[in-house]
Amino acid sequence: MERAQCLELIYPEIEDKLVVTIMGACAQELYDLGHKENFFYLQHAMGLASSIGLGLATHLPDEKIFVLDGDGSVLMNLGTLTTLARYRPKNLVHIIFDNGSLLSTGGFDSHTTSGITDLAAIARGAGIEHVVSVDGPMEFGEAFVEASEREDLSVIVAHVEAVGPDNYGMDFALPENAFRFKRCIAERRAASGS
């Protein structure tokens, strides 16, 4: 299964939600499906998408927050899993695309490649109750639907191939994306009266 395939599958369900992606391939593949102002591509900050997602989930309890992460990023910030478990935001879905590779930073093997490091087991060990590990599109789709409907913190570890987009390039830089994302949140809050 490829990450791009997974993103295409869930895009109709997340296109109106607040979404934070990690840098590189994941960000580019989501962008290529069609940018939305409620998408924040956390470029140049490997490991911090889940931290940004936690902050959003904590301060915007009426919004469903989706974090699209990678194995390399989670490995760089394993403490995020214990922090997520401690605060347990009921409106956060953390999707970890595990391709066993640091694809966006040179394609080196990550610690999950050998099969020794199991991110789903680490998430469970950190204290996260709803964790699922999936290998195929059907499993991924089912896990995504359950997590989306659940009013509790959910983690999905999706095992995907180590392939990325054909090209990289967005029509805006991180500061502009951050400004537009912040404005989108302000407009949504104003519209909902919160």
Strand content: 15-25%
Named at the architecture level, the CATH assignment is 3-Layer(aba) Sandwich
CATH secondary-structure class: Alpha Beta
- Give Rg in angstroms: 15 Å
The number of helical elements comes to 8
Written account of the structure:
The radius of gyration is 15 Å and the shape is globular. Helices cover 45% and strands 18% of the residues. The chain is built from eight helices and eight strands, in the order αβαβαβααβββαβαβα. The protein has a six-stranded parallel beta sheet with strand order 2-1-3-4-8-7, with helices on both faces. The chain starts with a helix and ends with a helix. The protein has one domain: 3-Layer(aba) Sandwich (Rossmann fold). The longest helix is centred in the C-terminal third of the chain and has 19 residues. It has 194 residues and is α/β, with parallel strands linked by helices.
Give the tags.
single chain, about 190 residues, alpha/beta, six-stranded parallel beta sheet, two-stranded antiparallel sheet, 8 helices, about 45% helix
Q: What's the helix and strand layout?
A:
Blueprint: H1 3-14, E1 18-21, H2 25-33, E2 39-41, H3 49-59, E3 65-70, H4 71-76, H5 79-87, E4 92-98, E5 101-102, E6 108-109, H6 119-126, E7 130-134, H7 137-149, E8 154-159, H8 174-192
Parallel strand pairs: 1-2, 1-3, 3-4, 4-8, 7-8
Antiparallel strand pairs: 5-6
Helix pairs in contact: 1-2, 1-7, 3-5
Summarize the structure.
With 194 residues, this protein is α/β, with parallel strands linked by helices.
